[in-house]
Amino acid sequence: MPGPALHDIMASFEETETEEKLTCIRMKVYHPYHAEKQVFRSISFFRNKKHKTDEVITFGRDIKTCSYVLWDARASRVQFALQVFRYSNSSEISFEIKNMSRKTTLFVDNVDLNYLNKRELPSKCMIRFGDFQFLVEQEPGDSVEYFDTYFELTPTSPLQEILITPSLQPIPEQGIMTYGPMSSFHFSRAETAEEVDENET
Fold first, then answer.
1. Burial state string for 3-35 with b = 16 or more CB within 10 A and e = fewer than 16
2. Ranges for the FHA domain (predicted)?
3. Which of 66, 88, 148, 200 has the highest Cβ tally under 10 A?
4. Long-range contacts made by residues 163-167, C-beta under 8 angstroms, separation at least 24?
5. Which helix (H) or strand (E) holds 38?
6. Which pLDDT tens digit goes with each residue over 59-104?
7. Distance CA 31, CA 128 (A)
8. Cα–Cα distance between 127 and 121 in angstroms, integer?
9. pLDDT in tens, 15-44
10. How far apart, in whole angstroms, are the C-alpha atoms of residue 149 and residue 31?
């Protein structure tokens, strides 16, 4: 029978082997006046933060209710929300994004979401409103109980990284432009925002 030290090592190894990998929402955030206004000062950068999947993640200027506070008077009290859902035939979790602002349109790639509009969050996309930019990438995991968020502050606009040139690209009939792999845009047909009832919880 192994001694206490070896037993602890084996137990630790087994725990590591069986630990589920968490889905991670990685956000590269940018605001042109962050250096002087410190609009992201409440966000901890370059570290994972664990959330339960039944938790609604909110962004906005309300320090009492928002998961991530945006210190800008032009941001809404609650700007937008992320919530987990899972397809009935899938073992992986997905996310939906909802615009919670009455005064500001939220852009997910080139899809505009008005108040209480929502859509599935693409695996890689650009979220924009006002002067704020969030380049979002999802790293899939196995857990349906928890997920991580990870933030990185960038001094330059992520739009420069993905080389958006809408003026040079034709817009197909009944189609919209969505973010695709290899830092480019592709078109998907008949994709629109889903409007939900204001009283939805």
1. eeeeeeeeeeeeeeeeeeebbbbbbbbbbeebe
2. 57-130
3. 66
4. 164/126, 166/110
5. none
6. 999 999 999 999 999 999 999 999 999 999 888 899 999 999 999 9
7. 10
8. 10
9. 444 578 999 999 999 999 999 999 999 999
10. 19
Cα–Cα distance list, 56 to 13, 59, 78 (Å):
33, 10, 12
pTM assigned to the model = 0.72
Residue 196: what residue type?
V
Q: In what order do the strands lie in the sheet with 80-85?
A: 68-69, 57-60, 80-85, 94-99, 117-120, 194-195
Tokens read off for 25: 């929402």
For 6, the token pair is 């070896």
Cα torsion for 143, 144, 145, 146, to the nearest 10°? 60
Q: How far is CA 103 from CA 79, 83, 94, 119, 136, in A?
A: 9, 21, 27, 19, 23
As a whole number of angstroms, the distance between CA 142 and CA 83 comes to 17
Q: In terms of residues, how long is the chain? A: 201
At 159, which helix (H) or strand (E)? Answer: helix 158-162
